Known about the structure:
1 helix, 14% strand, extended
Amino acid sequence: MAEYKYTVYFAPLPDGTYQVVFPAIPEIITCGATLKEARAMALDALRCHLEGLRKDNRPLPVEEHRPRRAPVKETMAINV
Length: 80
């Protein structure tokens, strides 16, 4: 059994839950009521997705390792 590593982001939502995002695997959509639950849901969703790909004899996604850059956060004002 091989080990694979994927970057995952846990984005806090206004209602206090966490959305899970795997940049290399946009098909995975999950969330959790707490960060701990979101981590568990992420692992379960990732395992389920990868096992499904293997069952269908499809290649597993490979994450591109790019130099890390901080995300750019801006506020945009607009008058309409």
